[in-house]
Amino acid sequence: MRKWIKSLTAVALAVSLIGGATSAASAASTLKGKIVINGSSALLPLTLQAASEFKKLNPKVKISASAAGSITGPQAVRKGIADIGAVDWDASQDVPGFKKFDGQVANPVAVTVFSAIVHKDVKVSSLTTKQLQDIFSGKITNWKDVGGDDEDIVVVNRKFGSGTRVNFQMKALNGTEFMSKGDNYKEVGSSGDMKTTIETTPNSIGYIDLPYVTSKMKALSINGVAPTEKNVLNGTYKVWGIGYFMTKGKPTGATKAFIEYIQSKTFQNGSLKKLKFIPLASVK
Amino acid sequence: MNESTRSEAPYSFGKRNSSSALYDRIFTGLVWGIGILVILFIVGLLFMLLKNGLPKLTWDFLYSIPSEIEEGGGIGPALFNSFYLLAISLIISIPIGLAAGIYLAEFAPNNKLIDFVRICVEGLSSVPSIIFGLFGIALFVEMFQIGLTILGGAISLAFLNLPMLTRITEESIRAVPVEMKNASFALGSTHLQTIRRVLIPVALNGLITGICLTAGRAFGESAVIILTAGVTTSGVMWDFNLFSPGETLAVHLWYVQSEAIVPDAQEIAQKATSVLIFIVLLINIVFRVPLWLNSRKTKS
Amino acid sequence: MIEMNQTVQTASAELGNSIRTGSGKSFDRRARLRWANSAFRIACIAAAAFVCLVLFGILFLMFRTGVLTFQEVSFAEFFFSADWDPENGKYGALLFIFGTVALTALTLLISVPFSVLIAVFLAEVTPKWLRNLLRPVLDLLVGIPSVVYGYLGLTVLIPWLRDMTGKDLADGLLAAAIVLTIMVLPTISRVSDDAISAVPKKYRDASYALGSNRFQTIFRVVLPASSRGIVYAVILGMARAIGETMAVVMVIGNTAQIADSLFTPTAVLTSNIVMQISSVEFDSTWNYALYMMGFLLLVISLIMIVAVRFLQKRGVRES
Asked: Taking CA atoms, what residue in B is nearest to C306?
């Protein structure tokens, strides 16, 4: 009698273990939902990479992400068009030029490093803050005034609402106003447009976040300090900001799981670093 | 010219060396030159559009999901959305457009009110497409609060199609010879029977041409879709949910070109261009060839 | 068809009135037919009314949203100030109006001569086989989506302009006008072609009989006779150019300044709306100003259509 009680308990234990394991595994992948993300184009590579990894783990969740500039993120959340608004600043606070968005919760996701960029044929590789201020406000108009060739400077700016623009203006230009008119001045709508424009327009200068920098453009050092993770961590390079995912109230369901995935150590120290963002924990 | 014809009318066709003859030669040369130039230009344009994309097209480009970060993505959901939105908008706009066109051609009296209605229809057809996008935002995003969806995009597209379909229906039905209509009445049929069994089949040629033109235009429409259906898809193929975001192929072409995160963004844009042109040409040609053959049969 | 003679004789007085004659065994069928007839008629009236309703709905909604601009911005500032700086509360739309007008004028300047010449080429000069080949090709060109033209402009035209002029930034009115010309050319050519072909053969014969050559015939007889149709074609092309959005936004530079040269990045009504509409709150003055600009576009297009109608009416009366 004892023998079959023993074998019965063994079988029951085994079955419950297997059952528990499979149900735990399928519980993770039965997460359902739809997540719509709008907003920052600077954070877009991060969002897309996280989305593709998250979808592999949770095949029933549908994620669609697009970008049209940081301000569109919290606006879309407010209008109900999106579940997450990716912003390059904390939109639950007042920021110069933008009012806070009431009722939205800011979930930090990454540290974004911004850099001034020029077309690859421009001979300059470092600029001082004063030179940057004068170039972007239109006072200096020729590359020869800052050590380059005798060519007109083509200034490419981001349009209003861009988080990259807000961060660059505050931290690299110390608040100087951008120029807004001119024969050699152009505005673009997203980080991707900025990248394409700088790559194809000779003698151009603009600004972008590190994940978009390619070999067809040059990232400038500011005051001699290169835009690298090391320099951000030791405090010498100051042009960086924290990216946030805004949600209406505290996030729930699939949205919450997604944000937690991005904030998890595996993602932060893995894919996030590979994309040239900096983990949140490094700067806190 | 006056001098040569006034005094020498009987002999003027013998004159070959006056200044007007020179102008004639120059003019003929100019027109031929410009004509050839334009033909070469059109051929060059089409060639340029297709040469980068067409050779690199593969079947799985057409139905695979767009890749977010890596190369090698496809246009599957966007292509599906293009057809889906087109189908829904045609389902909505063809009955209404046809009915309105039949009204204007058959039932409407010839007074000022109907003139006004005709001006309204033509006015609606001249409205820039972005206005339909703004209208769609005010209606679907603000008033009904459903966000950027396939449904909103399809209905806005339907509004865009309506005036063209109305006008084409009216013209096609008017073009049916009156004798046929009278013959049908003479046989004792009611107005509805006449319309259904005589007018529409005879006008079918023009109607289908018009529907193809409208479909071709709606397929390539982008401003309306961007504003009402968004720039993303839900990421899976065969998503029939009316409330998911509805990026179409034309929008995807613009968006992948401007977002530029994947390394082969330019290549995807070129391939998407060729697919887009190919389908638009297909819609315009494939449906019209049988009609053309049919009309050649019935003509001579 | 053979039986028709008898039917004609007996029913000649009842053309279309077959359902109105009295009662009998087939009364049910008659009533059903009558009901179907009326129902169909009502459905058609409703459809036509719906189309008008859509137009009025659009006008009303655009106006209602756009007119809210004037709560904060004065009439004079919106229409006569060229300073568009919404972040600092400045809403001068003159520069966009100027941009639209300048772009359309430039486009027509380039495209109309070419289009009319091509139309003449098609209608008068080409042999029949070439004509039947070219007409469908032009029709197909009309169907190519505008994003494709914009993409071509961005990837082919701008670098070419850059090489030709040596400037770094070749965006601006000229690039946009060239792209729009290519878009509008098939439309104007084909409609002009139809108008020129519609000129009766006897006009041409009369002109040849008087001893003129082909050039004189075309310029002094055919073109003036088809002038109304050509004007109609030009207005159609103009409507298309004014309302074009995506092709323009890719090559015009999108900067809020009045263009003082052909290569200054600038903006027009349509390009500005599409660039800024996604980053504005619906209940803000900025949004209302964008809707007001949309309303302006709407009004301009409608005026053109009314003008065309007016022209056509006069033409019918005169001929």
From this structure: B119
Tell me if residue A152 falls in helix, strand or coil: strand
B49 vs C225, which has greater pLDDT? C225
The CATH-assigned architecture of domain C93-272 is Orthogonal Bundle (1.10)
Q: What integer pLDDT is reported at residue A155 of this predicted model?
A: 93
- d(Cα C274, Cα C294) in Å, to the nearest integer? 10
Segment B231-256 mean pLDDT: 84
Burial classification of residue B14, based on how many CB atoms lie within 10 Å of its CB (0-12 exposed, 13-18 middle, 19 or more buried): exposed
- Could you tell me the two tokens for C87? 């972040």
Query: B24 by DSSP, 3-state: which?
Result: helix
Instruction: Compute the average pLDDT of residues B60-71.
Output: 75
Of the candidates B176, B153, B170, B90, which has an alpha carbon nearest to the alpha carbon of residue C48? B170
Distance from CA of B239 to the nearest CA of A (A): 11
Give the number of A-B residue pairs with CB atoms closer than 8 Å: 65
Paired tokens of B287: 């449906």
Nearest chain A CA: its distance from C201 CA (Å): 53
Residue type, B102: I
Which has the closest alpha carbon to C53: B157, B162, B224, B126? Answer: B162
* Residue-level pLDDT at A16: 53
pLDDT of res. A34: 86
User: CA A1 to CA A3: how far, in whole Å?
Assistant: 5
Closest by Cα among A40, A34, A36 to A86? A40
- The half-sphere exposure of A234 on its side-chain side, counting CA atoms within 13 A, is 7
| Rounded percentage of chain C residues whose pLDDT exceeds 90 | 24
Burial C136-147 (b: 16+ CB within 10 A, else e): eebbbbbbbbbb
Q: Give contacts of A59 with chain B, Cβ < 8 Å.
A: none
B173 CB neighbour count, 10 Å cutoff: 22
List A residues 129-148 in contact with B (Cβ-Cβ < 8 A).
none
Interface probe, candidates C87, C163, C169, chain A, greatest A C-beta count within 10 A: C169
Asked whether B188 and C14 are in contact (CB, 8 A), the reply is: yes
Q: What is the predicted pLDDT for the residue at B17?
A: 58
Domain ranges of chain B: 13-56, 59-299
Average pLDDT over residues B246-267: 84
What is the mean predicted confidence (pLDDT) over C218-236? Answer: 85
**pLDDT tens for each residue of C128-176:** 888 888 887 888 888 889 999 998 888 889 988 988 888 888 888 999 9
DSSP B91-123: HHHHHHHHHHHHIIIII--SSHHHHHHHHHHHH
Chain A residues within 8 A of C168 when measuring between CB atoms: 151-152, 154, 184, 201-204
Task: Choose among B157, B296, B175: nearest CA to B227.
Answer: B157
Give CA angle at A244 (A242, A248), nearest 5°. 160
B109-150 tens-digit pLDDT: 888 888 888 888 888 988 999 999 999 998 888 888 888 889
Q: Which of residues 103-122 of B touch C (CB under 8 A)?
A: 103-104, 106-108, 117, 119-122
User: Where does the pLDDT of residue C198 fall: very low under 50, low under 70, confident under 90, or very high at 90 and above?
Assistant: confident
B59-299 placed in CATH 3.30.10.20? no
In this complex, is the C-beta atom of B221 within 8 Å of any C-beta atom belonging to chain C? Answer: yes
CB-nearest to A184 from C169, C254, C280 is C169
Other CB atoms closer than 10 Å to residue B138's CB: what's the count?
20
Domain ranges, ordered by start, for chain C: 93-272
Work out the pLDDT band at B70, boundaries 50, 70, 90: confident
Q: Which of B188, B185, B162, B164 is nearest to B106 (CA)?
A: B185
